[in-house]
Amino acid sequence: MTDSEKSKCHAIIHSHAVMAGAGNLLPIPGTGLAADTVTMTTMAMALAGVFGGSIPESVARNMAVNAIIAAVKKNAVKTLVKEVSKAVPILGQIISPSISVAMLESAGWSLANQLDAERTQELLNP
Fold first, then answer.
1. Separation between Cα atoms, residue 110 and residue 105, nearest integer Å
2. How far apart are CA 57 and CA 67, in angstroms?
3. What pLDDT does 6 receive?
4. DSSP readout, the chain?
5. pLDDT at 61 over 80
6. pLDDT at 30
7. What are the residues whose beta carbons fall under 8 Å from the beta carbon of 67, sequence distance 6 or more?
């Protein structure tokens, strides 16, 4: 990944993570995962563009769901705390978005690295 690509990825990932955090402000359990999925879908499409490709929304959605599942498996306790914390007024609206931002940042970089590796593989094996 070049420095330019890394910079573009950083802007895309960070802005989408912040949007997902905003979507997690609602104190209703379950809405956070929906916001995360929508945000990851658009993030996947934008990241594919950084690496010279484009992917249909259905493929991006599958990638987003897989990335979120991986993040949930890796951080099951954080995910549970994120959703349960919404029942606690004010505190939940601080905790849930913070966890969501961290998880989407992590998932976004995993996705960017995956897309970069796939592009490199295609270049090596045309």
1. 9
2. 15
3. 95
4. --HHHHHHHHHHHHHHHHHHHHHTTSSSTTHHHHHHHHHHHHHHHHHHHHTT----HHHHHHHHHHHHHHHHHHTHHHHHHHHHGGGSTTTHHHHHHHHHHHHHHHHHHHHHHHHHHHHHHHHH--
5. yes
6. 72
7. 40, 44, 107, 108, 110, 111
Chain centroid, CA 30 distance in Å? 16
Instruction: Report whether pLDDT(9) > 90.
Output: yes
For the stretch 13-60, pLDDT in tens is 999 999 988 888 877 777 777 888 889 899 999 999 998 888 888 888
Size (the chain), residues: 126
Residue keyed to tokens 């594919």: 48
Tokens 């420095």 found at = 3
